[in-house]
Predict the 3D structure of the following.
Amino acid sequence: MKDPLLEFPGYALRRAANAAGAILSERLGELGLRQADASALILLDANPGLTSSRLGAALGIQRANMVPFLNRLETEGFVERVPIDGRTQGIHLTDQGRARLTDARRVIETFEAELIAMVPREHRTHLLPALLALWK
Amino acid sequence: MKDPLLEFPGYALRRAANAAGAILSERLGELGLRQADASALILLDANPGLTSSRLGAALGIQRANMVPFLNRLETEGFVERVPIDGRTQGIHLTDQGRARLTDARRVIETFEAELIAMVPREHRTHLLPALLALWK
DNA sequence: GCTTTATGCTATGGGCCATAGCAATGATCA
DNA sequence: TGATCATTGCTATGGCCCATAGCATAAAGC
């Protein structure tokens, strides 16, 4: 069967992201985390007290969607909101959040290593810079 | 602001695919098409009479989700189902489907060219093979 | 002080994917 | 040939992620 779609980098990009995302989501799911959760934990660990808006901007999540997202993280005890002024609040990891992050890191690093191992050696170092150029 | 996520190819893959997908979806939307629609039209043009199951397998769409998908394409007059035997049917493009495909091709080829142009020259030829290795 | 902007929020819908289960047909094989 | 198995197309349903519109309050800017 002919597949002309295989010539399109954009199509390959979508399929690759879906395939990789499915694997990672499944593994993070065993920790009770989604991909966005793990990303948020990593970002908050590196930048404690980040604002909801700024965290959302970094993750590419809109303000409106940050609300239920952070609510869930807070309900599960990974995160707490600390008021900064009347309208702004800093998001901080709880001890439980940091503990879960440790587990998540293991999963993610294993996953990323496997991912890189899938691409032929001669293309390997080019993947990350090429991908970053597409959205950064 | 520190962003440790930028070291992860898997994360960059997801962000790049989302960014690219948003642009393509918007442009195809002006033609009344979604990404999966355009992919299906291209595949059906290259392989007339493809079965729903086989088309779904090629596109990475499950049987259950092919039903409303093909219903819509049929309702909009892009596709017709031709019974092969009692339980199998071949999907064929209609003239209207082929016409819309012509427009879609223009959009997609422009998009793909712009996408490739975004990646630095030294990484350009590595992108497609690297991505194909991640799911093919 | 008044206007403008930023922040966090509610409500809602779309697109895409996944699972479970079903009826009917075709294929396989004793 | 007849019984079993596999395939095909389908219904129903829910989850996840994203997008828009609109709102109240608070801070910043003039």
Q: What stands out?
A: The domain at 4-117 of chain A is CATH 1.10.10.10 (Arc Repressor Mutant, subunit A). Chain A has one domain: 4-117. The CA atoms of residues 24 and 111 of chain A lie 7 Å apart. Chain A has a mean pLDDT of 96.
